[in-house]
Specification:
- This protein is α+β, with helices and mostly antiparallel strands and about 140 residues long.
- It has a 6-stranded mixed sheet with strand order 2-1-6-5-4-3.
- It contains 5 helices and 6 strands.
- Strand 3 and strand 4 form a beta hairpin.
- The protein is about 35% helix and about 45% strand.
């Protein structure tokens, strides 16, 4: 087996999370949904434009990723550092994008907490400076 095949099939929590970031970066929503458990709970932080908890892979992609694509050009989560403890994966990252309405860019630090069980993401929680994101959305 090649390394890429191992990575693609790996159920290791960090590998599952990394596949989610890679799929998101190229707008491959089918691949992204494939990393999510059927009963996933995905929470965008209070104060974030898409604040709330979304369930099901389709619910997550339609209410989060597709909405980000409507409001931002080039929305990308850059995963920098992984901290893994069993089924818990914390990723220190940053968001970059340009707001379509204002033309203002963002480059915001963020932390994501994932819980991975059985090779699928069952829970996600976002921590981000929501004021910086909202500032880019206002003229």
């Amino acid at each position: 087996m090649t390394e890429s095949t191992d990575f693609a099939a790996s159920t290791a929590p960090a590998d599952v999370v990394r596949r989610q970031y890679l799929a998101s970066a190229v707008d491959d929503l089918d691949a992204l949904r494939a990393t999510l458990a059927p009963d996933v709970e995905w929470t965008e932080m209070a104060g974030f434009p898409l604040a709330g908890t979304y369930r099901t892979p389709e619910g997550v992609t339609s209410n989060v990723m597709e909405q980000l694509g409507k409001e931002w050009d080039g929305w990308t989560a850059h995963d920098d550092t992984y901290v893994v403890d069993g089924e818990n994966v914390v990723v220190l990252a940053r968001y970059t994008a340009v707001n379509k309405a204002t033309g203002k860019p963002i480059d915001v630090r963020v932390a994501h907490h994932f819980v991975v069980r059985g090779g699928l993401i069952v829970r996600f929680e976002q921590f981000v400076d929501t004021a910086l994101v909202r500032s880019a959305m206002n003229d």
